[in-house]
Write a structure and sequence with these properties.
By secondary structure, the chain is mostly helical. The longest helix has 26 residues, at 314-339. It has helices at 18-31, 37-40, 46-61, 65-81, 85-97, 101-108, 117-124, 137-157, 170-176, 181-184, 202-207, 223-235, 244-261, 280-294, 301-308, 314-339.
Length: 344
């Protein structure tokens, strides 16, 4: 049985309509497989689902087959680093589909052959320049950032297991990869996901003028930059669902931890200050928000149920956790800018 979404009720592909259906359709056509938990976990909040897909597509899928293989090394390396079993097996499978069978299993096991060692090393600690051309940099950086977002959220909102019992084994991954060989070899046109970003619910239209849609310098004029800015802006709306002290305390904990640990997940208890005098449920919310960003594997089903307590809808729950994880991702993105510039 395939892994399932938890905490929220997802929109299944056969029941999808509107923006969710369009994202599912485009993703299935270009990934070569039916969408799984990384998509369905965001389906209660289409406003987040669409920019996540846009960032994933424009960074990972665009660029041609050779570049796609290199970026699958990045995706798999980050999945392994963040202990996301679903993503590690899924993207090892994509490397099998590219014909890189030894590479797929080496990266999944936490290493990489000499020819790809610099790329795996970059993925574990990204910077603005790396073992790729300046023109490809937005796509590589976007791949790293979107997988920091996806892998952490999968551990919060889905059961973290291989996509299918077949893909849990090396042989199974090699065999299953046959169905996506054509998709992995495709040379996709950039920008085709961006029109999805223009479809907004009325509540989001009202807030749109207040959101920061600044494209990071590394994004330039690329579709990746616009997709990233859109995801960051929309995810920030989740902050409004939290009490100010809860949001502030969680933000401070995330900023402090990413500043110290970088893109590494936190080990041990997360210190969230300023919540000592908050009501129990609010203090729990602050701890859950920080944990989603920094130690997503520690999120407990019972704790989430107590925190929601019938007061948070599925839409709101996805937005709060999306906000939390994006706080960490954007701090990583800010750290990239501080580390240097891209050499032309």
């Amino acid at each position: 049985m395939a892994p399932t979404v938890r905490h929220v009720t997802p929109v299944l592909p056969e029941a999808a309509d509107g923006l969710v259906a369009e994202v599912y359709r485009q993703a299935k056509a270009e990934l070569g497989i039916t969408v799984g938990p990384p998509f369905m976990m965001l389906s209660p909040a289409p406003e987040l689902l669409a920019p996540m897909w846009a960032l994933l597509r424009e960074s990972l899928l665009v660029g041609g087959p050779a570049e796609r293989t290199a970026k699958e090394v990045v995706a798999t390396t980050i999945a392994v680093k963040n202990a996301c079993r679903f993503c590690a097996d899924a993207h090892a499978l994509m490397l099998h589909a590219a014909g890189e069978h030894e590479l797929a299993e080496a990266v999944r096991d936490g290493g990489a052959p000499y020819a790809h060692a610099d790329l795996a090393e970059w993925a574990a600690a990204p910077s603005l320049d790396g073992p790729f051309s300046a023109s490809a940099a937005p796509r590589f950086i976007g791949t790293a950032l979107v997988f920091e977002f996806i892998t952490r959220l999968v551990k919060v909102l889905a059961h973290n297991a291989s996509p299918h019992p077949v893909t849990a084994t090396k042989l199974g991954r090699a065999v299953a990869s046959r169905q996506v060989r054509e998709a992995v070899a495709a040379d996709l046109e950039p920008g085709l996901s961006l029109p999805l970003l223009d479809r907004r619910e009325p509540w989001l239209k009202g807030r749109w003028p207040t959101l920061d849609l600044t494209v990071p310098d590394w994004g330039g004029a690329s579709p990746v930059g616009r997709a990233y800015a859109h995801l960051r802006a929309v995810a920030s709306c989740g902050r409004r669902l939290l009490d100010e002290q809860v949001a502030h305390s969680a933000e401070q904990a995330i900023e402090r931890s990413v500043g110290w640990w970088g893109s590494q997940l936190v080990t041990g208890p997360i210190a969230v200050g300023g919540i000592e005098d908050l009501p129990d449920r609010a203090a729990l919310g602050a701890r859950l928000v920080a944990a989603a960003a920094l130690d997503p594997g520690s999120i407990d089903d019972d704790a989430v149920a107590v925190w929601r307590a019938g007061a948070l809808s599925d839409h709101s729950t996805v937005f709060v956790f999306g906000f939390a994880v994006m706080q960490a991702v954007d701090q990583m993105q800010s750290n990239l800018i501080e580390m240097g510039t891209i050499d032309a």
